[in-house]
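Hi everyone, sorry if this is the wrong subforum. Our group has a chain we'd like a structural model of before ordering constructs, and none of us has done structure prediction before. Sequence below.
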Amino acid sequence: MNLRKSSSIILAATAIVFANASWAQEKKIPPAATVKQAQKSTISVEVVSPEIRKIKFSNPPLNFIVPETLASLNETVKSLSKDEQVKVVIVTSDLPGFFINHFDMAEFPNFMSQFADNSKPMWVDLINNLGNAPFITIASIHGRTQGGGDELTLAFDLRYASKEKAVFGQPEVGVGLFPGGGSSDHLSRLVGRDRALEILLTSDDYSADLAEKYGWVTRALPDAQLDDFVTKLAQRLATFDKTALAATKKHVNASNFPSEAALLASQGEFAKSLSWPGLQPRMQVFGKLYQEFGPVKVESNLGHYVGEGNRQVHQQTAKK
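Answer:
Right subforum, don't worry. Here is the predicted structure as tokens:
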């Protein structure tokens, strides 16, 4: 699929689909434009040492990914890739409760029209650059990561999760969409076909302990120990030879990281899913759930509300 040539169709479909998504206008969730005016960037970079950087993501109140996130993070990854001293990059969140949440659905038209300087879709370029980066990325996960946030997290090399606070989920199928950010490719490699299908099809929440058991994350640790563990690991790797680190990562990724063609195919299928008939009624129901219970409560228990929303849609359909 040529995403540039079909962008007008995608944007039209997106606009129709989300025209009635009243939750996007909920006063409790400021639109992305407001967020971007309130802060310079959702991405900040801390120099821990010449060999270590720490990327912090923050987009209160719910840590949604917005287009600026992808653009800023992509530029950061490209810049750090050119630094011959950088060997390890830690990724954290500055917002309690959420590591990296899903895409801001009110921004879907902007996501679908977002391209990198090389004319590749911005998302695909970012994931490719993370996989090809000559440094090791380590996620320190203290909160929820779901949807596109989880798909981004899956592109990091190592993922360490808080036993008490980390929760994982891919809610797209339950919303009526295709999970088009690479989760189907990553998860089938990491957890196997049947568990990947379970995760994607149930659209439910998964604890850090279960995610570790499945192979979704590298390791789950007590929350009080997580940061210290990640710091010591980064410091250890920072003493290693960069060529050895990068070459080993490249070789492992050659057979275990989604190809650009696979990522493009997934994004293309996601674009098609914006016009699937099951999406619109679910958006209307989920919009009502947002208004009734509030965005924070829904997002903090998304697996439950995805199930509840589908139950209501099923009841409405049965009455017709």
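For your construct planning: The CA atoms of residues 188 and 194 lie 8 Å apart. The first helix runs from residue 7 to 18.
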